């Protein structure tokens, strides 16, 4: 931190003021930091402004960090949706990795610490449980597990989204299965715990590979913490981080689900027991337990499932009403647009029907014309055939006359031979009859041979 020059105080003494090197500066040539929001082991978070809009900027020290911010940016951009804040920019400078994202409201841990009795009501906890399961199902269906479920990482939205729950801090998240084959990662022992020991599952504390069941078990501990205000393994004396993990693990194993959920509705006991006994590759029954928490609010507790929490103020409700009225306006506008579209579609459909009718009429006329053309062509062919037959008959008659004239010119001996060949002509079939031409050719050959002899 840089130091400002000494400034005088009212009592005459001087004090040194430290200057934050990350504050009041522009990043990515547009996002100007205006306020520090928090600080942790991962780095620092600031509120930034650009064009009258506010954003959150996270800084991770390159020397101290493990490039978790880059992992977080990649996963959040992959998961972008209704339960995940939007990523605006990611980059780095000489000293920091920098992530710009949508600005969120308070975390559940911040809200919980400001409650008077350090507890949430049954309705509020059930409303949160319903949304938490929706969020887990959303990220699990996209092959991602969070691995650091805790109240600090669940935050509320701002303005009209003040009732919506969001999940943040994906630095420890990872893919638990292949997106193509859906084959899960092998179940092996890890070197160290990934996550927060207070809310981590028993399998995670044993440093085993995590899956969907571990996120669910962590949610179970968070919900019990909200309802009771404490957990049995909180406030233990510890010597080191390793000692803390071992003591928490032993206490979780010793504490049965029944004792842990004492004086709580059955729905919470059933959920935690189910999460602990779930198989490594088994798919959780999200919808079943969402329905259980919904019924707990509406049927057993006889309250409305209206997302009015313990801390919801009248201003929050006003913001929601304004948004709902705006939504109604947009819905009505969309309805009018849909009506116009329907009218246009109806006109288009009518025009199409008319065109189809005209095309059908044209097709029928073409078919009739084709039939007439075929009939005319058939008549022409028949007439041509008749003409050909008449010509053939004339030719045959002429040939016969020629043959008869030739027969007259033959000698008596030639005529006798032809007559002897056709003596039995009348008794034979049509195929066996001897042609007059053949007979004449035969007779001519005989005479020619006898002439040469």
Give an account of the 3D structure.
With 453 residues, the chain is of the alpha+beta class. The chain folds into four domains: 18-102, Phosphorylase Kinase, domain 1 (2-Layer Sandwich); 108-312, Orthogonal Bundle (Transferase(Phosphotransferase), domain 1), CATH 1.10.510.10; 313-408; 410-453, no CATH class. Helices cover 50% and strands 13% of the residues. The chain has twelve helices and 14 strands. The chain has helices spanning 68-79, 108-113, 122-140, 202-205, 212-228, 241-254, 257-260, 266-277, 286-300, 314-409, 412-421, 436-452, and strands at 2-3, 7-8, 14-15, 18-19, 26-27, 31-39, 44-50, 53-61, 87-92, 96-102, 144-145, 154-156, 165-167, 174-175. The strands form five sheets. Strands 5-6-7-8-10-9 form a six-stranded antiparallel sheet, with helices on one face. The protein has a two-stranded antiparallel ribbon with strand order 1-4. Strands 2-3 form a two-stranded antiparallel sheet. The longest helix is centred in the C-terminal third of the chain and has 96 residues, at 314-409. The model is unreliable at 328-332, 429-434 and 447-453 (pLDDT under 50).
Structural class: alpha+beta
Summarize model confidence as the mean pLDDT: 82
Note poorly predicted spans.
328-332, 429-434, 447-453
Q: Main β-sheet, in a few words? A: 6 strands, antiparallel
Helix coverage percent: 40-55%
Distance between the termini: 145 Å
């Amino acid at each position: 931190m840089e130091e400002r020059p000494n400034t005088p105080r009212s009592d005459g003494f001087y004090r040194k003021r430290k200057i934050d090197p990350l504050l009041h500066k522009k990043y990515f040539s547009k996002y100007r930091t205006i306020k520090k929001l928090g600080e942790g082991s991962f780095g620092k978070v600031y509120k930034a402004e650009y064009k009258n809009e506010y954003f959150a900027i996270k800084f991770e020290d390159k020397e101290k960090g493990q490039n978790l911010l880059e992992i977080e940016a990649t996963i959040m951009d992959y998961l972008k949706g209704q339960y995940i804040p939007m990523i605006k920019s990611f980059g780095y400078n000489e000293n920091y990795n920098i992530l710009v994202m949508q600005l969120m409201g308070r975390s559940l841990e911040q809200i919980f610490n400001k409650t008077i009795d350090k507890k949430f009501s049954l309705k509020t906890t059930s409303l949160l449980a319903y949304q938490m399961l929706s969020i887990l199902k959303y990220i699990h269906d996209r092959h991602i597990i969070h691995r650091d479920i805790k109240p600090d990482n669940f935050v509320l939205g701002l303005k009209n989204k003040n009732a919506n729950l969001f999940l943040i801090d994906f630095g420890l998240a990872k893919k638990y299965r292949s997106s193509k084959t859906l084959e899960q990662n092998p179940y092996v022992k890890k070197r160290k715990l990934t996550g927060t020991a207070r809310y981590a599952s028993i399998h995670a504390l044993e440093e085993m590979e995590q899956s969907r069941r571990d996120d669910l078990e962590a949610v179970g501990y968070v919900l019990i913490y909200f309802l009771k205000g404490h957990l049995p393994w909180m406030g233990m004396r510890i010597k080191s981080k390793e000692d803390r993990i071992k003591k928490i693990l032993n206490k979780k194993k010793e504490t049965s689900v029944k004792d842990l959920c004492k004086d709580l509705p059955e729905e919470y006991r059933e959920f935690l027991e189910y999460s602990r006994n779930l198989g490594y590759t088994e798919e959780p029954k999200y919808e079943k337990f969402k329905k259980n928490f919904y019924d707990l609010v509406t049927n057993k507790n006889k309250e409305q499932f209206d997302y009015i929490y313990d801390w919801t103020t009248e201003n929050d409700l006003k913001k929601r009403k304004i948004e709902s009225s705006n939504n109604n306006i947009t819905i009505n506008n969309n309805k009018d647009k849909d009506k116009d579209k329907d009218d246009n579609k109806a006109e288009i459909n009518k025009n199409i029907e008319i065109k189809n009718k005209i095309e059908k009429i044209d097709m029928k006329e073409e078919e009739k014309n084709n039939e007439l053309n075929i009939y005319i062509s058939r008549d022409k062919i028949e007439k041509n055939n008749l003409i050909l037959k008449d010509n053939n008959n004339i030719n045959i008659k002429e040939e016969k006359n020629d043959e008869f004239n030739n027969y007259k010119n033959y000698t008596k001996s030639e005529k006798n031979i032809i007559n002897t060949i056709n003596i039995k002509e009348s008794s034979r079939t049509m195929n066996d009859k001897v042609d007059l031409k053949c007979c004449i050719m035969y007779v001519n050959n005989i005479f020619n041979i006898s002439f040469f002899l």
